[in-house]
Amino acid sequence: MQDFLQKQFKSFGSPGFAGSQPSGTDEETKPETQRNDFSFAYKPRDVKAHLDRYVIKQDEAKKVLSVALCDHYNAVREAFDGKEQSHYTKQNVMLMGPTGVGKTYLIRSIAELIGVPFVKADATKFSETGYVGGDVEDLVRDLVRQADGDVERAQYGIIYIDEIDKIASSSEQHGGRDVSGQGVQTTLLKLMEETEVPARAPHDMAGQIQAMMDGARGGKKGGNTINTKHILFVVSGAFAHLDKIVDRRLKESTIGFAGGEQDDVDGDRILEHAKTPDFIKYGFEPEFIGRLPVRVVCHPLSVDDLEQILKTSEGSIIRQYRQSFAAYGIRANFEDAGLRRIAELAIEEE
After folding, report:
1. Looking at domain 41-299, which of 3.40.50.300, 3.40.50.1860, 3.40.50.1000, 1.10.287.3610 is its CATH number?
2. What is the pLDDT of residues 199-233, one digit of tens each?
3. What DSSP string runs through 311-327?
4. Quick one: which of 150, 155, 138 has its CA closest to 207?
């Protein structure tokens, strides 16, 4: 919907989120001792109430995400307070649903509420470390840049990876795929568990030269690393054809038992019944899918839903365009019929 409006009103600019920019502060001025300044006091109802102001519908997804995010950051806070849970399972999240239903907006809104750095990337742009293509470890280094060079703050940020379904290695879904998808899963698995990522990329020649200069001046050596233990990973995708795998399993499980009871599962909600074996059959490694314990389904939006977003969401693109017009001394009013038509056109362009 935002793309449609930007095409129509592109002369008035493209409102959106302003990206964080590095402060340019010299690394040598950064304190080398770990700080203990992380605080988190939100409850799930607080996070859900915040999301309700910006995200229309997806009520169940908002509830599950609110609990998962609070569980994660409560665990981070306890770790900073020296009360780390010895067997805590990190609440990494998998979001399922079609494009344009608010998956990214949900996570970005939470990151802004909590005040942690946020990085988004497309899984199809990456390759296994050491091969041609983007290095997934660069996502961790991007968190440091979003945190204005603050490594400690970056270590409890959020990394969001879209189109994760495209790195599933099963030929059943994708008509044949090379093993690079499996390699990316393996590399991501290491990051989602706990590993140390070099602060300077091996392929960053400028960074390596700077590291040598720092060492020659008696400053920091080039071996600084970023720990991923408390970084929350959120992955998402449309998961085309996963519904067929789930439906087949449900029907097979009812033969001779429930007499077709599961045949009546609503097609729009069938992904809610997806289980770990379904994702493995889809092409994910068991270890990889096992590191994503929180699974959330976002459902398609109707014309009525989009109209409601335009009218009531605090993040509505209409509010932003009113501000853009106001900068030119123009007071913009949108009639209900006009908003309805915008919603209809947005659905048509999906």
Report:
1. 3.40.50.300
2. 887 666 655 565 566 556 555 444 489 999 999 99
3. HH-TT-HHHHHHHHHHT
4. 138
